[in-house]
Amino acid sequence: TTRRCRKLRSHLGLLEPGAVKVARPVLRGDSAPRGQGPTRHTSPFGDDFRLVEVFRRLGVQVAQLTYNIQNLVGGACYDPHDSGLTRFGRHVVAEMNRVGMMVDLSHVGDRTCLDAIDASAVPVSITHSNPGWFFDNPRNKPAEVIRALADRGGVIGCCLYPNVIGGERTTRDQFCAMVARLVDEIGPEHVAVGSDCTQNWSEEFVAWLRNGRWQPPEANPVVPKWPEWPEWFSGPADFPVLAEGLFDAGLDEKAVRGVLGENWMRLFADVLVPESDR
């Protein structure tokens, strides 16, 4: 709970940092890094920006500002009106920069995205979205947001989730052509893959994911279900198939290596460190 987190904050000196420099051991070939990955929104921070440091010390390295619905930090991609980054949200972004927690804008509203990119002192990420010109979905991003992200050194992870690529009939060649066009538009160092792979997750989980606690289940007339995935990508084991498609789309080896991981590693090495260590 928020109350317990605040109590924990008063004892930060007793905590061992979770995984401050996750990218560097991987680049050296060391054993797998410790720590947790992302949190899908900033609501666990409550209304106290100081809790960002608590979660960072507990191992949270990436935080998506919002998840599909407005919160105290800003607007989300499915909101009819995007408030933009709030005053509180600006303090949260600044604190994330200070402690070395990466900003993720994947499910965030377009205006809030632009505000956060501008407010952040370090590059930010869109870990799993696509350009709106590829498929029209609120989860995908307009050119203005993607260009602003790249201009500030950020990375977008092109997403394989069926709902944001046009369904399971979208071909590997279509997806890889999209990646190649994006590389041409914003530069190979700013494009990656964020698969958003949800294979073998339960239907009960997706129902909870879609409804959360903000609406009763009966408010959603459609029972949430996981979509069918394209036959050419069923999980991480199919990354070699994706690599082949990227080569076929015209990317050279350096660009493919960047898209399939090295661009993320560079961004992690730059951002997932405290301000005092940069």
UniProtKB/TrEMBL annotation:
<protein>
    <recommendedName>
        <fullName>Dipeptidase</fullName>
    </recommendedName>
</protein>
<dbReference type="Pfam" id="PF01244">
    <property type="entry name" value="Peptidase_M19"/>
</dbReference>
<dbReference type="GO" id="GO:0006508">
    <property type="term" value="P:proteolysis"/>
</dbReference>
<dbReference type="InterPro" id="IPR008257">
    <property type="entry name" value="Pept_M19"/>
</dbReference>
<dbReference type="GO" id="GO:0070573">
    <property type="term" value="F:metallodipeptidase activity"/>
</dbReference>
<dbReference type="InterPro" id="IPR032466">
    <property type="entry name" value="Metal_Hydrolase"/>
</dbReference>
